[in-house]
Write a structure and sequence with these properties.
With 456 residues, this protein is of the alpha/beta class. Helices cover 34% and strands 15% of the residues.
Length: 456
């Protein structure tokens, strides 16, 4: 297991995504990227969906794999929501011990530590006293850990992106269906105050018939990427391996919820293009000495990747990614329809016929659509922090669903669909922006259920 404190990734043959990236770079056929299970595959054809499957009602007993910066932040918010944490895993014992001290400080028994190498997480997931395993590790480990947790009878909640290949997306779906355990994407941006308010407004029909949306992850990470700790130890490596959208879900998840993706609509195909790569080269030139080993790295991820997604119902989504250039933080967060449009960063809204001619209005004028989760838990969420409180709301809601025996807000089909633009954008860029079809991870069942539970 690798955590945010791990060494750089150095085994390009370990993950199928790498083979796919190499294949697309030389123009090999793309069927493996979006192939769905074969028609004669008995397992696939007889799969029992995990859609609308509630948790067994219980107070979840939790294990966490990865106690670096992100894992510790999640732990603090879990403790704020009175979650019971029994086990912690990290390859750096000092980080696990720090997390352990936080649990004890919160008044709980000292959780057991698993710090004996990369695969010690296997012992954690094999415990018989855990209900939920939270995974906050580098991306290449997400699927292996989630699959292991589900096969040992635990639900898995995975940091983003949950998977980096289409094959691994299917692996999560198949394992969830086989084991009858949920695999949920920890997409905190779906629980932001603005996102949940706008979701309820869209569900109420205020924007009319929805037509288009925009999402992005535009975040200047140059300092973090070149850091000698945390994500700097592994995340920069992805910029040497793939040219596409490396991190699609923060911007895409909320828009997918607005549009009812996997709930009456689904992603159909994507086209993608990247600008030249310049930002990381320029940063290295300005901050690394001539003898720095990072001069041996060759960055290939285009600084700005722009993708267009078409849904089955014809809606359009613009998706962007840029972590290599100076720019204020921006997730775009746009939803537009026949009656109006919302645009974030800064938040502003416009409805047909509103006062002020063509001037933008304020989202504050629509406080009656504030989400009940924020109305009830917003103050403690803000005090705990975690991206403005959205981390706490996300985890509070996950615990609520498990404690009350509800269905999860986002399930394995969302985890797969929202992660798929990563490898599909790489394939499109490598093939002259050729369209790439999304698999139907729901196996046709996206037509059968209503809007996201968060909207309801």
């Amino acid at each position: 297991m690798k955590t945010e404190s791990s060494e750089p990734l150095g085994h390009p043959s370990r993950r199928d995504f790498l083979r796919i990236g190499a294949a697309t770079a030389i123009g090999v056929g793309m069927t493996q990227l979006h192939a769905e299970p074969a028609a004669d595959d008995a397992q696939a054809s007889h799969a029992v969906t995990m859609m609308n499957v509630p948790f067994e009602k219980a107070a979840p007993r939790i294990g966490i794999i990865g106690t670096g910066g992100r894992g510790t932040n999640l732990l603090e918010n879990l403790l704020g929501a009175d979650a019971k944490v029994l086990a912690l895993c990290d390859i750096v014992r000092e980080k696990a011990e720090h997390a352990q001290s936080l649990v004890v400080k919160a008044g709980q028994a000292s959780p057991e530590l698993y710090t004996s190498g990369e695969h010690n997480f296997e012992a954690l997931v094999a415990r018989d006293d855990l209900d939920l395993v939270i995974i906050a590790t580098p991306w290449d480990w997400h699927v292996e850990m989630a699959v292991a947790a589900m096969k040992h009878g635990k639900h898995a909640a995975v940091e983003v992106p949950t998977a980096t290949t289409i094959e691994d997306c299917w692996k999560l779906v198949d394992t969830s269906e086989e084991t009858r355990r949920h695999c949920m994407i920890l997409e905190n941006c779906c629980y932001g105050a603005n996102e949940t308010t706008v979701l309820r407004m869209a569900h109420a029909g205020l924007f009319g018939d929805l037509l288009y949306g925009e999402g992005a992850y535009v975040h200047d990470l140059r300092d973090e990427l070149f850091s000698n700790k945390g994500e700097g130890l592994w995340r920069r490596d992805f910029h040497t391996r793939f040219n596409g959208n490396l991190y699609p879900t923060h911007g895409l998840g909320p828009v997918a919820n607005y549009m009812g993706i996997n709930r009456g609509d689904r992603f159909d195909y994507i086209v993608s293009m990247s600008t030249p790569q310049r930002g990381l080269d320029e940063y290295r030139k300005a901050h690394c000495s001539d003898t720095d080993p990072r001069w041996a790295e060759r960055y290939i991820t285009g600084d700005l990747n722009t993708s267009l997604i078409k849904t089955a119902k014809g809606l359009n989504i613009t998706l962007k990614h840029d972590t290599s250039n100076p720019h204020p933080y921006d997730r775009l967060n746009v939803i537009g329809g026949t009656k109006g449009v919302f645009v974030d960063y800064p938040p502003r809204i416009y409805f047909d016929g509103q006062a002020g001619d063509e001037a933008w209005g304020s989202l504050d004028q629509w406080k009656q659509y504030q989400h009940p989760l924020w109305a009830k838990e917003g103050e403690i969420a803000k005090k705990l922090g975690g991206h403005g409180g959205m981390d706490y709301i996300m985890l509070y809601r996950l615990l609520q669903c498990m404690r009350e025996g509800l269905c999860p807000d986002m399930d394995v089909y969302d985890a797969a669909a929202w992660s798929a633009p990563g490898p599909l954008s790489v394939a499109s860029v490598a093939n002259g922006s050729a369209p790439q079809k999304f698999p139907d991870f729901t196996r046709g069942r996206w037509k059968e259920r209503p809007a996201s539970q968060i909207a309801l």
